[in-house]
Amino acid sequence: MKKTLLLFGLLLAPVQSWAQDEDTNTSSKVLRLEDFRLSGPPALALLGIAHASVARPNTPRALIASLVSATGSSGTVPNGYAIETAPYWLTSHPALDLDRYYRATLTDRLRYFTAFSVATARRSARSDSVAPDARVSIAVRTLLMNGRPSTALLAVSDSMRKAQVQYITRYVQWETLRVTAGALASQQRRLERQESLLSTLVTKVLVGPERDLRDSTLRTLARRDSARAAVAVSQSASDQVATLEKQMDGLEERLSNLAESFSERDLEPDGFVLELAAGTRALFSEGEWDRERVDGIGVWVTPMYRLSASHLEVVGVTRYLTRVAEYADDDLLDLGVRAGLDIGKASLSGEWVHRSLMDADTGSSRWAALFDYPLPAKLHLVASFGSDFRRPNGKRPVVATLGINLGLGAVMILPESKAH
Length: 420
Description:
Elements: H1 33-36, H2 42-47, E1 53-56, H3 60-71, E2 82-85, H4 98-102, H5 106-113, E3 115-125, E4 132-148, H6 151-182, H7 184-207, H8 211-266, E5 270-284, E6 292-307, E7 312-324, E8 330-343, E9 346-357, E10 362-375, E11 379-387, E12 398-405, E13 412-415
Parallel strand pairs: 1-13
Antiparallel strand pairs: 2-3, 3-4, 4-5, 5-6, 6-7, 7-8, 8-9, 9-10, 10-11, 11-12
Helix pairs in contact: 6-8, 7-8
């Protein structure tokens, strides 16, 4: 299902319709089920922020370097730090194939898909302190069920395998021929020497009767012919090497495109997927590491069933957060579900979310119908209509939007380079 269903970025020419008896000036952003799910590290969601970048070290050395640079030597909590890492993928696993990846046991799934995240943020300074308070969150997420590879993913995987075999075949040929092709220059110099010697000998034979010169000329002539043959072989090998290099360049580009497509397909498996995440948040007074108190917890349970052959996706989400600032530090429970269907290039979905405030023992719900259609230049035409959560004054605003999703506002993921 298109991830750009979300109208969380900028909209051009938005249209919003409100209930006519709404008498407040409070604006209402268009909340989507995707706002409740985890699109980024759960540690960021616990802080209610989205950093401009998230480090994802993929080697032990990069992980240690990232942690050391974050803690520093000042004894205070850094601002704007975010990291997520999966311990299993800190080392390479070339023997792990697609079938084993998707048919993993529960123990293996916990190894493959468990990731830990940490994020920090600074609040405004208190009136009685120069140093601002800091918040730090630590969270973990994993997949208890990871579905099965879609037909499209299997097709991409098969194409990658065939391209890899073609690349290896051409590489072996290239490696064999490049030795012969590399001798082209020396073979050409050898031929030039034989040609020069032969020319000298022929001249001497023509002006003199010496029999030995005739024998030397015949032997030089044979060596000249041998050198010509060697040059021809080297030249042919050189031409083949150039052709193979062009073919390998084309295969490398194709493999790169297939790998990108593989990653996109892998994010949308078929069957049943169940993600579980949990974390805790702490407040550090004046940003000092030794002045900490627990400031809340969060739990996410996200089941999903997807059937790409039928262009159908059903997503549910349960989110429990404690001490939510925008609800006066009340605890929050969200329960939601969305059903979506792809119609050609367009996507049509409907979703419903119920929100409960635990301490106030009150609740409200919202529903929305969403439409998404891809446009050129990675733009999307998006539209939605529905009823938002009930306001504190008891009103339920009707929200309708129509606009263009520019694709802005995404969190940048910064992978660490492999150590050599």
